[in-house]
């Protein structure tokens, strides 16, 4: 409560910008997250206080005005007793010119905050608010028209007007027929057509047009506005060319955004009635003009539209329609190949992780999605012909090879002379060729695996380890690993004080890659060829692990290497089990690296069913759990160590049950994708143990054990899961939660119905602001939907709809 009072006092004192900004932001955060702290009878005085502060501080700083506007908007959305807030604000401030800027700020953020994730106002209140805002939308449009008349050439005011209008378009509450005839619409296009428009105003107008186009996605029900917007955007082509001529990239990007949104909005028309009415293909011409811009960032804006166009056309399966779009897609592919070219002074292989590398990956995905319209065989041959017939610079060659690699998989690889010719040409590349060309050529060969299999003569002397006879594999693998083992030994022998790096991650990573990709076929009874090699290198890995036991990064690399080694050899690495587990437990007691828990789960996977290994693994689990629990028992232990939670429950789920149900229930609230997924999987598998494999001897024992667990913890678990879904977790986690609830219901449906009913009764029925959170009917409907569900996905659907009432 002190934070509310101190913030209010700081805003009254008005000492300086910093203290006022801090106070305004604190006030906003408190309203968003801690509104429940205030008694209902204080809401009106808080509203009056905030309105007083925003009026008194309106000239101090725009950022303070924004924070206070957000606070007022968030209060209005949660305060059910503040009826008709839009009308109240407009009546109070619209006649004072000096108050218009902050009034517009409030009216801009109000619709934006309706769907804010920071506010958990619930679906019922949200519906009520949207209906209320729709009712007063004409009041806001009239106010904006008045503001335009008063603004004259005041650019800042026009930006505020356009931002506000865009915000109301985004909420989808403006009357489209009314807006089609509004002067605000013609003003938007006027601003976008003028060469002298400033960058900031241009961006605001572009954003607003995009919002309007998004709002009329259902074209038929918004036809008058759709026509006005369609015709308006088509008039901007010459303005785009002017921006290109002036090298004004910001404006070029704005126009491309508008053109793309136009195409997205009229996509159905473009596909169903190409070249007619609102399916006019000048829309695609605009995007192809943008694709011709030298900066790749411009064409990238339109990628989502091209994806969606390809998807729609793929579903139509109409050859006539496809033929209409073929020429457009061909032009796009040529433009994309040009954009994929590296700089002529680029050295080394192409970067894959920088912005341009990611752009090329997106191009590759897009080409794969669109190639069916052009024909992969024809396109592949055409691209190869450009290399064969001409003598292009290396960067052009590399870009063409890159596009060819994108479509190689979709080309019929059986008896295709072009592919064989390409493979032969790649293998015979001269030594002097640029590294990037060689690299992309190898990528292309990798995409042509069937052709390589049919033409092994092109592989020359390159030997693939896994294809060797078993007796040769061990020898070759040993030689391959020896180089890395030698490097590790050298690093281990170095004195730490000699200034040289003793970081072993490179040789460790190389060993991991070797074991990961060595997968020989071993028949029953044969000794795995890699077994001896792994036993030979274990002492060096063990010593490396001991030396760097405090360094999480290096320990992770050691565990990764051991993980792939164990996976490679499988049960053949049993001799390593005891020394490996002993060392893991020893190091973990001193340093709780979560990767040991993950490695432990791999060992349980591999050896959990071996009679002679079970007791040792159980001892390992117990030894690892003790320091883990001590770590998680610290203040905010679960929140601070989500990776440990993730790996702990992976381990717990690996065929061996350990008594950690209380931790699992506590950890269900964790908003961390991997950790939450592992916790839910553990709970699901635990409960499922009671109903699975009913033909096995231990079925009755398992059923009774799970029944005991649920009798003790079932009500708490169901209540926690429901509370977690409503108040803690994002929607993407709901399918995992639904699976746990489903398994509990399968175990004992009648008892589950009672637990769910009790859990629902404990939920809040009203928000702190006095709005209805959930009705009695919504509670009973949800209970019925879940308890009568015949499939897990029905539980998930019910959960998804129900939790919206609390978001």
From TrEMBL:
Residues 62-208 form the Exportin-1/Importin-beta-like domain. It comes from Chrysolophus pictus. GO terms for cellular component: cytoplasm. GO terms for biological process: protein import into nucleus. PANTHER family: TRANSPORTIN 3 AND IMPORTIN 13, TRANSPORTIN-3. This is Transportin 3. InterPro entries: ARM-like, ARM-type_fold, Exportin-1/Importin-b-like, Importin_beta-like_NTR, TPR_TNPO3_IPO13_2nd, TPR_TNPO3_IPO13_3rd, TPR_TNPO3_IPO13_4th. Pfam families: TPR_TNPO3_IPO13_2nd (PF24138), TPR_TNPO3_IPO13_3rd (PF24140), TPR_TNPO3_IPO13_4th (PF24139), Xpo1 (PF08389). SUPFAM superfamilies: ARM repeat (SSF48371).
